[in-house]
Every structure is written in structure tokens, then in C-alpha cells.
Amino acid sequence: MDNRKHMGNITDCGETGSGSRTVEQDGAGRELSETLVIRELDIEEYRGKTYEFVYETPGFYDFDVRENEFALEYKSFERPVRKSFTDSLISQWLESPCLYGAFRNGCLAGIAEGSMESWNNRFRINNFLIFEEFRRQGIGTLLMQRMLRRAREEKARMTVLETQSCNVNAIQFYRRCGFEIIGFDLYCYSNQDPQRGEVRIEMGTVQPGLCIHCTDRMNA
Question: What is the pTM of this model?
């Protein structure tokens, strides 16, 4: 599955969340619509559903890789670049996948897919997208908080995800959510990734109470 994630432009309407109507707040304390509901979705209902992922970026992070060190330098494009691709949800190879949707006024505003990686006890966010018309409304923050809570429930030592060096807005968002760059792959998508300014970046955040070098499962 192509994991170049985190933005989209398709909206499914007519679905409603369960539970009481409550007023939510985003990370900055801004009040959100009382009809915003985040709920777990049925895996089989959404398996194989295809979405178009779209984002616009003003620049990219250029990698300067040397024998014993590397550095990142932000560079602007001459004009904002719009990128898009399609991808489907819930690949068969995922281990114990979960799927959450954010619904505003009955419309699917965002979706997040995750799964455990038991071999190293990490929780991976495989897909994370907020549809274009619902961005910058605090919905992504709430959806990410739910995914991080799921990782804690799974007793994962870390939560990790993949993004690209050209997805500047996504990188900034993940950093605000507590993620940091933990690795990269210069040639994940093609042999020209560095020249294209689209290098795979791994980001991660350690569960509270654990250092980044810990390997033991959480006790609580």
C-alpha cells in the first residue's frame, strides 16, 4: 500500500455517530460544533474503500546526507505545489487494524487507520486524513488524540507514522501533536525521491512515562 498520507478531499455524508451531543474543544481551547462525533468504524464496511488524497505544500525539506551526519534544510517552491494520489483502507496484511471517523453534522470529516506492530510493540497510524472542507477546524487534533489514546489502550511503547519531506503542513501538525522525526528512507518511492523533494520520513512519539530508548511494554 502506498503510504503517502494525511490529506483528502472526498466526503461521505449521511452517517451519524452514536452517543450524546457534547461540545468538544480543540487543543487551543476553541469550541467546536456540538454535532462533532468521533467513533470507531466497522472494519469490514470500510475495507477496500478508496479515497483521493490531496494536499498543497509551499516547499519541502531537503536532505543533506554525509558519511557521518545528515541535515534538513527547508526550501520553498517557486509557487505552492498541489499533490494528489489515491489509496484504499484496511489492507489485508495489517495486524489487528482499527479505524476511527470524525463526523460533523452527519458528514465524514476525517478518518484515521491504525494497527499494532507486535514484533516491536509499536502502534502505527497507517492513514490519517481530514477532508479539505473540514481542515483547520481542530478536527484533526481531536482525531489524533483518539488514536494516541488507542495506542495507550494497546499498551504500545510508541506511536509511529509515515509522511513525506514535501508534506510540510502535515509535519508541522504532527510536531504539534508531540511527534518527532525518528528516521527516513531516501529512496522509498523511487530512485529520484531526493531530487523530487519527496523523501519518506518516519515520525514517532513515545507513550507518557517511557523514554525513547525503552523497549518494555507499559505496565498500565
Answer: 0.80
